[in-house]
Amino acid sequence: MGAQQVIGYDIDPNIISIAKEYTTKNNYPIEFHTQDITSIQTSCDTVLMNPPFGAQKANLKADRKFIEKGFEIASVLYSFHLKKTIPFMEKMITALKGEITFQKDYEFPIKWIFDFHYKQVVSYKVTLLRITTHQ
Fold first, then answer.
1. Angle formed at CA 74 by CA 27 and CA 22, multiple of 5 degrees
2. Residue 19, Cβ density class (10 Å: 0-12 exposed, 13-18 middle, ≥19 buried)
3. pLDDT by residue (tens digit) across 116-127?
4. Phi/psi at 5 (nearest 5 deg)?
5. Cα 21 versus chain centre, distance
6. At what angle do helices 62-73 and 86-95 cross, to 10 degrees?
7. In CATH, what number is assigned to the domain containing residue 62?
8. Which domain holds residue 75?
9. Fewest CB atoms within 10 Å of the CB: 8, 11, 102, 116?
10. Residue 132 pLDDT more than 90?
11. pLDDT in tens, 5-49
């Protein structure tokens, strides 16, 4: 979409491998790093993120970690969250001196890929947020 540079991050090396295959096949010049969100040190214009939905113990407070990191590195964030968490997200984003400037609801199907999944496909009601920071 005209970006001068695109960098992708994920903590899961398997996800990075799949993303690399996809970008190579489609000739997208994207650089990837296997890295935890909290250790990313960069700056950019826009961040696109899909934080873990926080249902598992290892992901508690993941939404906040992702938003805080996004605010450190960019002034505009696009982020997916469970629709039922939007009232919490609105309060948190306001407390962090951010503003939701757009939101759109979607159905987000997730296939059975993790041990804790129990159905072949589960659809979640999610909301895409466009967030700006005033920091």
1. 20
2. middle
3. 667 778 888 999
4. -150, 140
5. 20
6. 40
7. 3.40.50.150
8. 36-133
9. 116
10. yes
11. 999 999 999 999 999 999 999 999 999 999 999 999 999 999 999
Contacts of 100 (CB under 8 A, 6+ apart): 89, 90, 93, 129, 130, 131
Q: Which residue has the higher pLDDT, 44 or 110?
A: 44
CA-closest candidate to residue 73, choices 11, 7, 128: 7
Give me 43's structure tokens: 């700056």
Helix (H) / strand (E) element for 134: namely none
d(CA 19, CA 10): 10
Task: Answer for the pair 122, 116: CB distance below 8 angstroms, yes or no.
Answer: no
The structural domain count of the chain equals: 1
d(CA 69, CA 39) in angstroms, rounded, equals 9
Burial class (CB in 10 A: 0-12, 13-18, 19+), 47: buried
Residue 63 CA to residue 52 CA, distance in Å, equals: 7
Cα separation, 114 vs 74, in Å, equals 31
Assess if residue 98 is contained within a domain.
Answer: yes
